[in-house]
Design goal:
mainly alpha, two-stranded antiparallel ribbon, 30 helices, 7 strands, single chain
């Protein structure tokens, strides 16, 4: 059978990756594990966790919050902050319990140490073992990420409630929505996605049954039991129910909301075709349902169906003319116009006249309301208006940057966009950022990694680097190989890192010198299995029968790439778990990298601060600093790939990369841009074009405007880093220039 064949393939591949047992621990290793490692790992708990922000759809999972704020704010009436159960954004961004410049171990770590018989000396802030008799086994490792704790606690309660009433569609939907919100906030390889999808389908089953009963009784299924909030725009269709609580929606409105939510979780799971299908179900009920139209267009862009996406965005822009709840339609349309202007009837005229008319009006309103918006209770209104203006100005930047080539106008819109954006963000903590890097460098020194610890598996391939460094191109090259699969930026390893750290701490204080090697190997196996499970889920979601048949003929992958770029902070842990795994560092000309990072808006998180020169410069300099550190303490461990070499010498670089994976060359690698593969990054439209070099040195178009940033970077504006792939020789300089 097919399942038997797949199992045989999997067993054959796993046999090649069979791991050797670790050698006996030496006395020095025992001392390291029992005395030094606990101290170092515990200190790490206070400096990690703020950078895990991959590219994800900009949907906070709570449209009611967005609407109530947006309607009142755009109309000139500041709203009170809409209360949510989510952690305070500022606390999460800066790390709850951590203070910039404060080297004191966080409270949660102290609590952990006390539970495990550890205390702090008065003079060195270092843990010591207390002498105990018959010390009980340590408790299960606890998650120290406050955001993760919040979501998991909330979901546990909702899950219990749903299981107690499995035929309650509202409890099912509450659980599914919470799982989707967690998946958006916690990027751990999609651990909540399968359950979320399953519960959404259960909710749909219950709601459809309810609809059938109502139809048999002759009752209307499109009449809501509640009214839309006062002052919100009246659409005259099910869009009027967009921001009602679920219990107040009509049955048809509830179905639209559930299909839209299901489409979003499919999107997050990289099941883009299924995502479109879910939105289509919503549109079959209400053809003008804006939530489905807007997010359907996002999925279509990734699938390369630009004409359809443009039609959806056009409908959203024209229909959402008063509230501008779905402002991403402007930036989404701009992305299509940059990639393929002919896909949009009337081209840039679809959005430019509207933006030129509305931006001044909204900015005048913002100025008039400024004193009121600065009040804490109106933070929601301020955030919405500044976010609206940010998106609009960014769309106008794309227009002038690509279409008119008027650099002064383009820069005006880009800089104004980020002026608005930064006005609503917490102040950047430079001291905290420096403390993080300094602490990592002090912890991960030669001798940190116990001999014989770690998995021998080469299954994971880690791609790291600064954002906008060209990593997507490298991932697609790898993914074009029949035995390699790109799993994107929703990192299984990174999502488990908090758990991994705690398990290592627990093992290191056990007193058993063999415990750490055994636990580390188990943890590595869990990461590999998680990557394989994620691939199986995505691979099985194909709706095209012909593609499904072709996939059955393909071999089981033997390598999985993880493109969480900010794992450059976590190389110490990657090396501990996977000392033989390939780590590919993509590096691009500094100013090209930094300008590209500056002009692209990222999802909320630390990368918000790439929109401001001082914080962007610090982020980049610290990235360079930590990469230099890894090269010093783990010489040769990281393989560097210059993006410019990849673009200019693709055949040779690609062969060297595949050789580094330990796999045989496949000619299909060089046709990566032809492979039917959905790409979910900011580089989606670029990668579909294949290799192009016209963007090299693109920052010089704005050389004058970027001079303050150049000065802030100092020596970091240059980087004489060379591709370090084995046996790779870059072409001569004159050949490059030719």
């Amino acid at each position: 059978t097919t399942s038997t064949t797949s199992t045989e393939k999997s067993n054959a591949n796993e046999k090649e990756e069979k791991e050797n047992p670790p050698p006996p621990a030496s006395l020095s290793m025992a001392f390291l594990i029992t005395a030094v490692l606990p101290i170092l790992i515990i200190l790490i708990l206070s400096v990690y966790g703020d950078y895990n922000s991959p590219i994800v759809p900009e949907d906070d999972g709570k449209p009611q919050k967005m609407t109530l704020v947006s309607q009142q704010a755009v109309n000139g009436v500041p709203s009170s902050t809409v209360k949510t159960n989510q952690p305070n954004a500022k606390d999460v961004r800066n790390g709850a319990g951590k203070t910039a410049g404060n080297k004191k171990i966080p409270k949660e770590v102290e609590d952990y140490m006390r539970k495990n018989g550890m205390t702090l000396t008065n003079n060195q802030n270092q843990p010591q073992r207390q002498q105990q008799q018959q010390k009980p086994p340590p408790p299960p490792p606890q998650q120290t990420d406050p955001t993760r704790q919040h979501y998991d606690n909330q979901i546990a309660k909702l899950r219990t409630s749903f299981h107690a009433s499995p035929n309650d569609e509202y409890k099912a939907l509450a659980l599914a929505d919470a799982l989707r919100a967690r998946d958006l906030a916690i990027h751990d390889g999609g651990s909540a996605q399968n359950e979320c999808i399953e519960i959404y389908h259960k909710a749909l089953q219950l709601i459809h049954a309810k609809k059938e009963n109502m139809k048999q009784l002759g009752q209307n299924t499109n009449v809501a039991s509640a009214q839309a909030p006062a002052g919100t725009q009246a659409f005259g269709n099910l869009n009027d129910e967009l921001f009602l609580p679920n219990a107040g929606k009509s049955v048809d409105g509830l179905l639209c909301a559930v299909y839209a939510g299901l489409g979003k979780i499919y999107f997050m799971a990289n099941m883009f075709e299924k995502s479109v299908e879910s939105y289509d179900e919503a549109l079959n009920i209400e053809p003008m349902y804006l939530d489905a139209l807007s997010y359907r267009a996002s999925s279509l862009i990734i699938l390369g169906r630009y004409e359809e996406a443009a039609m959806n965005y056009t409908t959203v822009i024209q229909t959402d003319g008063k509230q501008r709840m779905f402002v991403d339609a402007f930036t989404g349309m701009a992305k299509i116009l940059v990639a393929k202007e002919e896909a949009v009837p009337n081209g840039w005229d679809v959005i430019v006249p509207t933006l030129e008319r509305e931006i001044p009006n909204i900015e005048n309103r913002l100025e008039q309301m400024s004193p009121q918006l600065q009040l804490p209770q109106n933070a929601g209104s301020l955030s919405f208006i500044t976010g609206l203006l940010t998106k609009m100005h960014l769309a106008m930047f794309s227009y002038h940057d690509v279409k008119t080539k008027q650099t002064k106008e383009a820069w005006h819109h880009l800089s104004t966009a980020y002026k608005h954006k930064m006005s609503a963000l917490p102040k950047w903590s430079a001291a905290h950022e420096d403390q993080r890097i300094d602490t990592i460098k002090k912890i991960f020194r030669p001798g940190f990694w116990p001999e014989g610890t770690g998995s021998t598996s080469r299954v994971p391939i880690f791609i790291i680097g600064f954002v906008r460094s060209g990593s997507t191109l490298l991932e697609r090259v790898l993914d074009a190989h029949p035995l390699i699969v790109g799993t994107g930026e929703d990192s299984v390893f990174n999502g488990r890192l908090d758990y991994i750290r705690n398990k290592v701490v627990e093992a290191s204080i056990s007193g058993d010198p063999t415990m750490v090697p055994r636990v580390v190997k188990e943890l590595a196996g869990e990461v590999v299995n998680g990557m394989k499970d994620r691939w199986r889920t995505i691979d099985s979601s194909t709706s095209d029968e012909k593609d499904a048949i072709e996939k059955e003929k393909q071999p089981v992958p033997r390598r999985f790439s993880d493109k969480m770029l900010t794992n450059y902070l976590n190389i110490g842990f990657i090396h501990m778990l996977f000392p033989r795994a390939l780590i590919l560092h993509v590096a691009r000309e500094p100013m090209d990298t930094i300008f590209s990072a500056y002009k692209h808006e990222f999802p909320p998180g630390t990368l918000d601060y790439t929109s401001d020169f001082p914080s962007l410069a610090q982020l980049y300099q610290n990235y360079r600093d930590i990469m230099k550190h890894w090269d010093e303490v783990l010489p040769g461990r990281v393989t560097h790939v210059r993006y410019e070499d990849l673009v200019r010498d693709m055949p040779n670089v690609a062969r060297s990369v595949i050789n580094a994976t330990g796999l045989q060359w496949d000619d299909g690698v060089l046709e990566f841009h032809k492979k039917k593969q959905a790409v979910n990054t900011l580089s989606t439209t670029q990668v579909r074009k294949g290799i192009y070099s016209h963007h090299l040195k693109s920052w010089m178009t704005y050389e004058e405007e970027l001079q303050p940033l150049v000065k802030m970077l100092g020596d970091s504006v240059e980087w004489d880093l060379k591709t370090s792939l084995a046996n790779y020789v870059p072409p001569a300089k004159e050949e490059k220039e030719g």
